[in-house]
Structures are given as C-alpha cells and as structure tokens.
Predict the structure.
Amino acid sequence: MSGQWMLPAFDLHALLVAPWTEQRETFGWVGVMGFCVAASCGLLGNYLLLRRMALMGDAVSHSVLPGLVIAFLVSGGRDTGAMFLGALASGLGATLIIDFLQARTPLKQDAAIGIVFSALFAIGVLLTVVFAGQIDLDPDCVLNGELLFVALEPPVHWGAWTLAPPAVLRMAGVLALVVGVIAIGYRILLVSSFDPGIARAAGVRVGTVRLGLMLLLSLVVVSAFEAVGAVLVVAMLILPGATATLLTDRLPRLHLLAVLHAALSVWWGVGLAVWLDCSLAPAIVVMGAVLFALAWLFAPRGGLIAQGLRRARVLS
Amino acid sequence: MNAPTASPVPPPVVEIHDLTVAYRRKPVLWGVDLTIGPGKLVGIIGPNGAGKSTLIKACMGLVPTQGGWVRFWGRPFGEVGSRVGYVPQRETVDWDFPVSVMDVVLMGRYGRIGLFRRPSRADREAARACLEQVELLPYADRQISNLSGGQQQRVFLARALAQEAEVYFMDEPFAGVDAATEASIVSVLRTLRDRGCTLFVVHHDLPTARQYFDHLLLLNLNVVAFGPTAEVFTAELLQRTYGGRLTLLSEVAQALGAQGGPR
Ligand SMILES: Nc1ncnc2c1ncn2[C@@H]1O[C@H](COP(=O)(O)OP(=O)(O)OP(=O)(O)O)[C@@H](O)[C@H]1O
Ligand SMILES: [Mg+2]
C-alpha cells in the first residue's frame, strides 16, 4: 500500500554516500557552496552571539531588497556586480540606521531592528510593485533562494583549468576573507567583543571594529542569500555558534565546532533533501537544528542527560 | 626667546577641563574640572547615579561628551595608547564569555605587543606574575564564570597590572570582595602609586575611603570638592555631596534649558 503519507525508503548509503560519489555531478558543487555559506555564517555568527546582536543578520538579510531593486533599475538589468553592490549598500545602511536609532532614541536594539528591516523590506516590495513593468524581481525569491541553481551554472575556466561555478568561487572567497579576518584580527575582535572599555585601553578603535564587522556581515549575508534566502541565512548565522556554545567555553574551539557543525549539517542536510525530495537550504537548516538538539541532550557538561545523571547521583 | 618646548613644567598627567556629559538631554556630568600629577591615589566618592562611572567612561572616550576635554600628558586619549588602563564595573561584562582567566589577563598586554601579534612567552610570564600578585595563579586556566565575585574582580585587577599603564581608572574594584582581598588590593594600588602611577578609584565606603586614598574627588553631577583627603573629607562637603542632589540637578536642568541644552 503506497499511501500519500508514506515516507520514501530510507537507505543510508543512498542518502549519505551516493550524493558525494555517484551523484557528484549534481551535489558536488552544491555541497561546497553549502559548506562555504554555513561556515562563513557560523564563524561570523560566533561574534554576533558574543555581542548579543544575533538578529543583526536578520536585519541585513531582509534589508537587501530595496538595494536590489534600485541596482536593477540603475543598471537596467540583472547585472551581478551592480545587484551585489546594491544589496551590500542597503544591508550596511540598515545596520547603520539601527545603530543610530539605538544611540539617539530610547529604543533598544531589538525594537530598532524590528523597525528598520521591516520598513526596508516593505519599501522593497513597494518598489517592485511600482516598477513592476521594468524589473522581474520576485520578493519570494529573495526570501527563499535556491541552492541547487549553483549546480546548473557552468563552471568558470581559467586557462586549461576548470574551476568552480562563479557563485561557488565567490562564496569560497568570502569564506577565505572571513577566516583571514578572524585569524589576523583575532585579538582585536576578542577584546572589543569582551568589553569596549578594556578594548579602548588596549588601543582598539571600538567603533571602527564594529563598523568592519557590520561590513563583513553584510558581505556574507548578501553573498549567501542568493543560495539560501534571507530567512534561512539567519539560522546559519546562529545555529553553529549556539550549538558550539553548548559544547565548549573557549573561543578557538567555538570556531572549530562551528565549522564542524557547518560541515555536518550540509552533509546530513543534503541527505535529508535527497530522502524527502525537498529543497536543500531548509533541509540543511533542519539538520543544523537537529545537531543543536543533539548537543543539548548529550553535551558532556551542561547537557540534559549529564544534568539528569548528576542529579540522580546527588540524590542517591 | 623662550621656546614652549623648553618649558621646565611638564604637562599634568591628567587634565579634565569643563567636561559635560548628557544622556539624551539629561545632564549627568556638568563642568568637571580637574588637574593631577603623577603618583597619586585618588578616590572618587559620590552617591549612586552621581556620574562616577560616566566620568571614567568619558575619560576613556567611551561615551560622547557634550563639551570640554580630557588630556593625558597634554594629549588626547587617542594618542596615548595603552598608557591609560581601565577596570570596568564588574557587572558590565558578560562573564559567560568564552575566555579563560589567562586570556583576560593577556588582554592587558595587547596594547604593548601590538594588536596583531601573538603574546610571547615573556608576555605569558608577565601575565602569570600579575596573577600571582592577586593570588589567582591556580585559576589561570578556568573559564571566567567559574569564579567567585571577588575573584572576578581580581582578574580585572591582574589584567590592569599586566598592562603596565601609568594612569588607571578603576570602577568599584572593591565591590563584593572580602576584607582580606580588599586589603591585598589596596596594597597593590599603593605599590602602583609608589611606582609613580596615578590611579582613580571609585569607592563607596566612606570610612575606608579616608584611609585608602591620598586625594578625594567628591562628585555629584559636578565636582563638589577635589583635593588632599585631609582637606576634603569634611562633614560639610560630604553633606553637600550626598545631600543636595535634587536641588543641584534642577539648577543645571534650568541652565541647560535656558541655553538650548546639549544634544
Ligand atoms: N547609557 C545610559 N543611558 C542613559 N542614562 C544613563 C546611562 N548610563 C548612566 N545613565 C545615567 O547617568 C547617571 C550617572 O550614572 P553613572 O553610572 O555614571 O553613576 P555612578 O555614579 O557610577 O553610580 P553607581 O554608584 O550606581 O555606580 C545616572 O542617573 C544614570 O541613570
Ligand atoms: Mg558606577
């Protein structure tokens, strides 16, 4: 009996191995792209979590729409470079407006974020309606993205070499930038996230660091969202760091675990997407959340099971 | 012809001139003036909300000021680098932050070694010596939330020591520490002063303030009094510091309203 509600057959080899061997044509670059997105988001997200500004990513990702529309109108077409700059500018602009509201009004950060990103997104929607004749941009597309498109792009050639598809190259570049900034500016980011006063005493320009971080965030989010969409990019920013926080209390290990989380959630996420025949980004995020739940259960020190055992031992 | 560089009088270590800070039109500090030389241990005294923390933050360039200036050795904060140290009020930092005690103390060395360089073995040794001085060496590898309040306060002190600054601003370093720890912190502060450092220390306990500090800054929105402890620690001045807050505030609010007020 094959009812409509039956789950497809579950075959570990087909889900976890085959995508990377027999079906490498389809999933190879998708996997690399997914990993680059998840790892750059996760690494940067660690700092957002430490600074209690996790929702800044949300603000940036929803604020890119007006920038995209304006870039489309100005450049007269889907020119990737112009679109990218437009999105980047409106993402960064959103963070600046939020900072300004926070500093100059009694509003707290959460309220400032709520106002700015919803207003900018609404402006973007209005613009798409007003200029409907001249542009074919779909707000839905901005919200959802599609990772599988990456596999359809022809790879870039460089001399005799066949490199990756352009989106993958871009995202790998962004990941390299994020890793480089963290490696070189490790101590600056650490001390300015810990306490601005102590950072000032160490000679750090706290405001410049914050601005740089917002610029990097805009860059990551804008590069990522064509693949995973504005909604899921937030999950990618928060889940790896949140999971890692349950497992360690040292920053270097936090970074390593965030990258591991990124790799595992892409691996399992692709499996889930193959199994359910659904779209990739949500599957990756679901697996990221599953990993978070597993860490919450099994964390050696603060996990639910460890806590239960400890309580049982104390009582007996 | 006398060139200004030949002047035998060096600029004061810290000079604050007509400093005014307001949070959204509400004045918190008003016309603060102060000049001090090297090797002084200064207590900052005043009621809750007097602007003590705000004064320190303004000196460190952490809050925007509406007027006046602060100079160290005649230069603005941005030019003196890590010669000015800071110990924040303990509640202001997130103690769950994923760093060890050693990591925090090493932050004190950043200004010295340059922000892009890894701390060397010598820096680690210096940090260990500072931890030793505040009796925290056994805790060096702990994450900072696994410490008592008094131990956390001493971590900050060790970080400040590791910086080897010449001017220190300390916001309530004695908050929540026991008598023995308080005594050992005081002796550390005195050692620093004897080496020629100038320290500003926010303190809430009046009787001990008189013993600990050679200068006192009585602060309540503006400087009520500033000078050697013996001259300033009088019933009348303390009464003015702690008693007259309401009238003082309304006077200044009026003055601000009359001239359009700071933004
Ligand atoms: N970020 C802020 N925004 C608005 N008002 C503030 C802010 N920080 C401090 N204030 C106000 O400024 C005044 C002075 O605060 P400050 O923290 O300097 O006082 P304090 O002397 O350090 O007090 P305490 O003894 O309680 O530490 C208070 O009335 C406080 O409400
Ligand atoms: Mg205070």
